[in-house]
Design a protein that fits this description.
By secondary structure, this protein is mainly alpha-helical. It is 46% helix and 3% strand. Helix 2 packs across helix 6 and helix 4 packs across helix 6.
Length: 152
């Protein structure tokens, strides 16, 4: 059993090492994921809410209702960032008309642990893969970014 675990660990290290070498060899990284929350925002929210979060996204003319200014969430909530409500909106428990039905929010199942995604990623190099934890970490990173862009 130990031999199998050691072989698995070595295989994982080789893959990670070769990936790191390939990334280090690139002159310009394709995607800057240094700020995961900002990355999530740019990929999931900016189209409608705008790059600065003020509700002036590039598809504004196509929307039935203008998206709110996300930089004033705290201001509109007596100076307190509405963490729980934002979390429920992102993970689909609180439905907003502009985001679509719970089954298909504007961002698909990006922030939910869908059964299909969990099935596909059950194991990664013989280690359990927790889709719920992955979705939650993306949600929390996005919420952290939204909290950081609040106007004072």
């Amino acid at each position: 059993m130990r031999h199998k675990q050691l072989a698995s660990l070595i295989a994982t290290a080789l893959v990670i090492g070769s990936t790191a070498i390939a990334i280090a060899g690139e002159k310009q990284p394709r995607i800057n994921r240094g700020d995961l929350g900002k990355y999530e925002y740019n990929n999931s929210c900016a189209l409608c809410h705008g790059a600065n979060g003020k509700g002036e996204g590039s598809v504004l003319d196509l929307l039935k209702k203008a998206p709110p200014d996300l930089t004033t969430l705290s201001k509109r909530n007596n100076g307190v960032f509405p963490f729980e409500r934002v979390y429920r909106i992102i993970d689909g428990r609180e439905i907003l008309n502009g985001h679509g039905e719970r089954d298909m929010p504007a961002w698909g199942d990006r922030y939910t642990a869908s059964s299909e995604g969990a099935k596909a990623g059950e194991h990664f190099f013989e280690m359990p893969y927790d889709m719920e934890m992955y979705a939650r970490s993306r949600t929390l990173a996005l919420i952290d970014y939204l909290n950081r862009i609040q106007v004072k």
